[in-house]
Amino acid sequence: MAKSTWAIDPTHSEIGFKVKHMMFTNVSGKFNTSEVTIENEDNQFETSKINFSADVNTVDTNNGDRDNHLRSADFFDVEKFPKLSFVGTSVKKLNEGLYQIDGDLTIKDVTKSVSLETEYSGVMTDPWGNTKAGLSITGKINRKDFGLTWNSTLETGGVLVGEEIKLNVEIQLIKQ
User: Fold this and answer.
1) Cα gap 107→99, rounded to integer Å
2) Do the beta carbons of residue 169 and residue 18 sit within 8 Å?
3) N or C: lower Cβ tally within 10 Å for the chain?
4) Between 86 and 165, whose confidence is greater?
5) Are 146 and 161 contacting, i.e. CB atoms less than 8 angstroms apart?
6) Is 5 helix (H, G, I), strand (E, B) or coil?
7) Can you give the C-alpha Rg of the chain in angstroms?
8) Cα 147 from Cα 73, distance rounded (Å)
9) Which distant-in-sequence residues (6+ apart) come within 8 Å of 105 by Cβ?
10) SS3 assignment for 61-125
11) Residue 169 pLDDT exceeds 70
12) Which residues of 63-80 are buried (b: 16+ CB within 10 A; e: fewer)?
């Protein structure tokens, strides 16, 4: 078997998330700088060893004040915890093109096991001769499980920031 190593193509990838704001609309954000390495045997996705990290200082919700608040000790505390990470522990094929990736997600100083649903597009060659693969990853986490507990109560009842974070990740990989 031949070992393959893959890295993220940052110009064709987005590490995104959504959270409820004021209990009725979603606010979207992303991390502008991340690293992904995947090693597998003969390009077989289910044999993948996955390592991911994001530079939390690059959080981007299209609002500078909110981004600075997210970087503060109320949320990510980037001074102490500049990266979040995910290390895959298993990849299981559910059906054609659909997989479940289990792994350990670390945010701040908390590590929890999570399961992510992943669509794998397979392998193809781009017009410049690069071998590429694509992943669409979705999942949900509770931000409070990772020590992201800041909130504000609304006058009408309820809270300003929802607990559930929906992950929406699009990754294009380049074979190294």
Assistant:
1) 23
2) no
3) N
4) 86
5) no
6) strand
7) 17
8) 10
9) 84, 85, 86, 111, 112, 113, 114, 141, 146
10) CCCHHHHHHHHCCCCCCCCCCCEEEEEEEEEEEEECCEEEEEEEEEECCEEEEEEEEEEEEEEEE
11) yes
12) eeebbeebbeeebbbbee
Question: Contact at 8 Å (CB) between 45 and 99?
Answer: yes
What the block records as the tokens of 96 is 């054609």
Please answer whether residues 175 and 6 qualify as being in contact, where contact means their C-beta atoms are separated by less than 8 angstroms: yes
Pair 85, 101: CB distance under 8 Å: no
| Token representation of residue 34 | 């991340």
Question: Tokens representing 152?
Answer: 């504000």
Residue at token pair 């929906």: 166
**What tokens appear for 52 in the block?**
């991911």
Taking only the tens place, the pLDDT of each residue in 101-149 is: 999 999 999 999 999 999 999 899 999 999 999 999 999 998 888 887 7
Helix (H, G, I), strand (E, B) or coil at 145: helix
Tokens of 94: 């559910």
Structure tokens, 33: 């700088």
The answer to whether residues 164 and 173 touch, using CB atoms and an 8 Å cutoff, is no
3-175 has which CATH code? 2.40.128.110
Token pair of 39, please?
């090693």
Selected residue with higher pLDDT from 165 and 68: 68
